[in-house]
TrEMBL record, chains A, B, C, D:
<dbReference type="InterPro" id="IPR046373">
    <property type="entry name" value="Acyl-CoA_Oxase/DH_mid-dom_sf"/>
</dbReference>
<dbReference type="GO" id="GO:0005737">
    <property type="term" value="C:cytoplasm"/>
</dbReference>
<dbReference type="Pfam" id="PF02771">
    <property type="entry name" value="Acyl-CoA_dh_N"/>
</dbReference>
<feature type="domain" description="Acyl-CoA oxidase/dehydrogenase middle">
    <location>
        <begin position="143"/>
        <end position="246"/>
    </location>
</feature>
<dbReference type="InterPro" id="IPR006091">
    <property type="entry name" value="Acyl-CoA_Oxase/DH_mid-dom"/>
</dbReference>
<dbReference type="InterPro" id="IPR036250">
    <property type="entry name" value="AcylCo_DH-like_C"/>
</dbReference>
<keyword id="KW-0285">Flavoprotein</keyword>
<dbReference type="Pfam" id="PF02770">
    <property type="entry name" value="Acyl-CoA_dh_M"/>
</dbReference>
<protein>
    <submittedName>
        <fullName>Acyl-CoA dehydrogenase</fullName>
    </submittedName>
</protein>
<dbReference type="InterPro" id="IPR037069">
    <property type="entry name" value="AcylCoA_DH/ox_N_sf"/>
</dbReference>
<dbReference type="InterPro" id="IPR009075">
    <property type="entry name" value="AcylCo_DH/oxidase_C"/>
</dbReference>
<dbReference type="GO" id="GO:0003995">
    <property type="term" value="F:acyl-CoA dehydrogenase activity"/>
</dbReference>
<dbReference type="GO" id="GO:0033539">
    <property type="term" value="P:fatty acid beta-oxidation using acyl-CoA dehydrogenase"/>
</dbReference>
<dbReference type="InterPro" id="IPR009100">
    <property type="entry name" value="AcylCoA_DH/oxidase_NM_dom_sf"/>
</dbReference>
<comment type="subunit">
    <text>Homodimer.</text>
</comment>
<dbReference type="InterPro" id="IPR050741">
    <property type="entry name" value="Acyl-CoA_dehydrogenase"/>
</dbReference>
<feature type="domain" description="Acyl-CoA dehydrogenase/oxidase N-terminal">
    <location>
        <begin position="80"/>
        <end position="139"/>
    </location>
</feature>
Length: 416, 416, 416, 416
């Protein structure tokens, strides 16, 4: 048992922390002022291009791509693949999670990371060349169109959108929403998931397909951008998108029709580590902000840190974050050593615990900040909204708890 | 002991519920579409004027003004004063709290209600004529400028803004923020609170004054509008406002210099009943929405209501709301029967419990709604933000808990 | 709406509080020292007889019997029936709940109260004369045998014990446990519930009977006394009792064979008010003890009350108790005014909330007392065990939450 | 980073699990029936001697003694010292914690382990020969007398007992309580802590001494045995002990007068790992029992596992236990690698989190078991009492949270 990071991880941690302190954190205010300057904030603040260039130069680019994914890249000329294990990447995701703008700086932001992983693992040479290359280089952005407004997406078999193969074309129809990143000016492609086999008696995990859809394909329409607690989360945004008789060559289907579920499953393990570590990073930053405020802000003649239960809140936040981090690191290590399937309970556990811990800690930080905490002068409100969504995105808490209980009870049911 | 509402209250409850169902709830969508139509949503959606006219006509206007405040109105010609007790008004506030737009419809929205109460109780005949009349008639809106960015306003003695009497003028300086309603196009006047006695050794509750400041007075500047979780809460909004050498006649001071604290205290009791009952109304509506969704939305072959712990969540929400409501009603009854001072613990208790219950229940409703819950298609996200702010506005939870504990421990300390 | 107790209730409250302060609280230590004196603590400490005599003389006897139950007493000569409403008795139950020994002093302890109510409502003249009279006079004690070890008693239809009518006899077989009070030296009779109709297709609420069983009937055997967290709860105790071919005349059946469920239902409403108010009394005493300790005990140079989050704990305890009390009082008032059936949700709500609040507050009081809190020098450990059992007795929390949710969702399901 | 146990640890884990399954778990019922057979259960059930002999033979003896403590043993002939690191011993402590009787079987029970560690680290050759040898061989038991009834022992500087050096004697006076294990028939010696320097201005961590006191020394008197929730926890028990002019040679003082605090500190780190891992073992067993019950017990036609929120409870228990275990293992690893001082926050964190998690999980297991859960037919009630005490023993939660917050805030305070 060894709780120290590997020397590879530690070296990246150091470099990333330095880069964050020197470049990213100071750029946050610039970024948001550039973003909000015009009437329509769906722009890429110029400072982002600078940061990306610096990160590339510093070798802090595409850090998320796991070691074993290297060999699966068909396309020639993919450079900048570092090949960290999940356990090594996890602390880097946490550091990036401390700033809202950081993940994109390092080309490590969702949903592009998940989409790139899908293309690395399942993409054809042609798909990789057309879409993976510009995604890896950071030229374009992408979105993932899975969730639908009219059905409970927590149960993926509810999906209603269709991707029907007609001759050498695939025809897409349906409405998706909460397609994150689709508002970004550089978003050029989405991965669309839909039913290819309409027979309700067909094996339920062989009925869906994933299709690469260029944003400018006729029939694709962003109906509206959705808000989260009133915030549109620009310039990425969350869109409601309709697909009306969208026709694409069958070569747009990833890995062939009927493999949508298989791909979705493969996408989950590492993606959850990323999400969880980022949100732990946010919680850690919230705790840091809370502590700074608590020692400086004075009421009734004492710093807030010395009033009432505030020190208990700080202690409990520390305990909760430490525990969530250790569990997430263990889940990452299990993915690396025994695989996603054997780590299913742990992966579900972190998906419950990390966003809930973050929501709690950030809420308490807001409380210590008072009204300033809900406004835009600190990153707390945005962090809070993000942690809150994460309790729904990629499966609500309830679905994960249900999975954990199912796995926990299995041996006892089997021995009845 | 009798838990039934008085016949007066019951009659208003019935009329108000009918009015809400017939006019207000159906107008919500219209209101928001009118509000968001233009580039700059700081407008009064036309439907609001219609609703207000109807409410006036229906005799559902200014319901908040308590019975014993009647006699204090110096100015002649004040009509439409109904004179309900706090216990009778409380259930009406709850009903209004079910819709974001309702309180204004009935001229019962904060901070105008608090400002009107101040003017009724402490305003001169001239002040009442100039400001109370148009506020009571709903022609103008007002704001309350107390909280400051640079000090912990939970401890009111921290206040830094000044209201210095110089001859027959009072001169205001300072920066205030979270001045709710100041963005409203009809906001014409604010009540500003500041230090009039700069001697730190003066009795600390006799140093402040409240001053009526017309919005167009030179030196008053809205520096920016603040957001709550990214939402600007238009058309009311929360402003950061600077006061730079703002000069007004001394007759603008309410009740005379040095009485600011006394007035602030008097403002608190009924206002907290209003806030708490409204937020309980929001919690009740969230529970209703959650139940409707839970019986209709299907996942894994069952309505959400029948899955996992959802029925426990619904049961716990019901229990929590019932209890918070009873406690708030009791506090209202105590204000009516034994007065604010004897009800201090109860008033502090409801200020802790009602917003926390609402935050919890609304959060759970959001969870049942999934992604739809954080967006703008349901009132849940806005309700959530409002409940969250209420844990800070008018004193954070911590200050109220501290007060409750102080009162609880007093007899034991005294008998040491 | 009126939160003041009726003058009748207030007069009893005053008298009961005086009696408690003068006689009961000072007798607690005496009682326990008399109880634990011998090797076998299944005795009635002599001080109890004195206290009972005084209570009778003071007219504080059988206070629990509700007003509307008077007329149902067939038997002549029942004296000492006071006839309070549930709302009037509730605060008296709370006061008694402050001391472990108090309920028996006033002949108001479970399960005798429930058994007496059953006999008042459903007992024949003969049954009333034989059992109700000596129970009302406090000469004998009784037990209630419903829960069984081998099945989940939360679902009463699981019951396995039988009460088969054979000619003019009824024959009982089965094993019951957690029969509270059966260890008491004065326990002379139990009410046994069992299946009389073995046909599984018979209407499931018409299959059971309740039978009065003298303790000395052949075939009745106390197999063992059960402990609660290691405590045997003498001299009442909780027994495991076997019934083996116990034969009794059919006149021992209460209200006739097949009416067991109906009687059980009727027993529930007021009994839950009693349980809940008593446990609220315990919580209130725990808070009082906690406050006293917190202002006196010093650590790190300060009274515990001024350290860390202790004042928050006290404030939250106060809030929780106030709310649980108000909800229970409302449920009592509803039973009085609209009946048990219309108050079903409220009755279930208090059964969840009151014991949980008590468990939480007592646990926190224990924490403030340190090791002394878990020992026998304060009443806290016994109170804790009692609150904990109450989350199981008379239906576990889960069953009540399920009922509340069912009632809450009913209108929404009906309108689908 | 590596979450796998070392091969040494894994080998002991396997052997210990086998031994537990084969010998300890089956002996639990025997042990308790032997214990409760007589009138006075302060006996050692004969089965314990058998189990100890087997454990010794299996090389599963004194596993707790950490590697670096070997060299400090002055006395010759100490055998059976295994020398595991804290990280390697931790999973073994967890396994032992699954059974109430297991720790003694392996000579790894508190407070003997802590006392042995003190003697290994600080004992003179003579002290080691006289007391450490028979403790290591399991011939005798010991107790630790620190907590006092009249002062808050959470603040150790409150201590009132005295250990005054008079010539070549040390004279002890004072009253101690919650001296665990002092009721055991084999308890021969206690470590007593008292003030040697009565000058209140002396350095507060140099005023106390620890003294080895044979139980049969004149002036030592067990005043009474204390109960925990009504249970006396035989045959160990918790005693209130008076020391009245107890005279011993100065050679009885451990490491010399004035070093009591230093020794107490050194005792803490590993001891907390032991306590926490044992209580996690109890929580894990409670979860196992809860799952077994939940799949077997049927109500309303379904196993409890499929009813309401029970699966959520199971999932949350799994998450909480995993996290508490990881944090405790990390703290153990830190003690091994960076030392107790650098691990102070983590050691305090586990002391808060592990007993609280255990208390929660065991309480929920009790709820699933219904009335059976609070009785003596399952180990749950005893486990619960033990977890509850652990929130007080060795410093209440509050003191540890305060330490965590202090360490967390330190860098921010320093940079003010």
């Amino acid at each position: 048992m060894n709780f120290a990071f590997s020397s590879t991880a530690q070296s990246y941690i150091n470099r990333l922390q330095d880069f964050m302190a020197e470049h990213v954190i100071p750029a946050e205010a610039v970024y948001f002022s550039q973003l909000k300057r015009g009437e329509r904030p769906w722009v890429v603040p110029p400072v982002m291009a600078d940061l990306k260039a610096r990160a590339k130069q510093a070798g802090l680019w595409n850090l998320f791509l796991a070691a074993d994914e290297h060999n699966k890249v068909h396309g020639a000329g993919l450079t900048g693949l570092i090949g960290l294990s999940n356990a090594d990447y996890a602390p880097l995701a946490e550091i990036m999670g401390r700033s809202f703008i950081a993940p994109e700086v390092f080309n490590c932001n969702a949903p592009d990371t998940g989409n790139m992983e899908v293309l690395v693992k399942y993409g054809s040479a042609e798909q990789q060349q057309r879409w993976l290359q510009p995604l890896l280089s950071g030229e374009i952005r992408s979105a993932f169109c899975m969730t639908e407004p009219d059905v409970a997406s927590s149960d993926a078999t509810n999906m209603q959108a269709t991707a029907i193969v007609e001759g050498d074309e695939v025809v897409l129809n349906g409405v998706k929403w909460w397609s994150t990143g689709i508002g970004h000016p550089d978003c050029r492609v989405v991965i669309f998931m839909g039913l290819s086999d309409l027979n309700p008696k067909a094996p339920k995990h062989l009925r869906h397909s994933m299709v690469l859809v260029p944003m400018d394909t006729p029939g694709v329409k962003i109906e509206r951008m959705l808000s989260v607690f009133g915030d549109q989360d620009e310039p990425y945004g969350h869109g409601e998108v309709s697909f009306t008789n969208v026709r694409l060559p069958v070569s747009s289907i990833i890995a062939g029709a009927g493999r949508g579920f298989e791909i979705a499953q493969g996408r989950l393990g590492p993606g959850r580590i990323h999400h969880c570590m980022r949100v732990i990073g946010a919680a850690e930053r919230a705790l840091e902000l809370m502590c700074k405020r608590a020692v400086r802000r004075v009421a009734f003649g004492q710093p807030l840190a010395d009033l009432g239960g505030n020190s208990d809140i700080i202690a409990n936040a520390r305990i909760a974050i430490e525990q969530a981090r250790l569990l997430t690191l263990k889940a990452a290590w299990m993915i690396d050593t025994v695989g996603v399937k054997a780590a299913m309970s742990e992966i579900a556990q972190i998906k419950v615990v990390a966003p809930n811990v973050a929501q709690m800690v950030i809420d308490q930080a807001i409380q210590i900040f008072g009204a300033a905490g809900v406004g835009a002068d600190t990153p707390l409100a945005a962090m809070y909204a993000n942690a809150r969504i994460l309790r729904l995105a990629d499966g609500p808490d309830e679905v994960h708890r249900s999975m954990i209980a199912k796995l926990e009870l299995k041996p006892y049911r089997n021995s009845l």
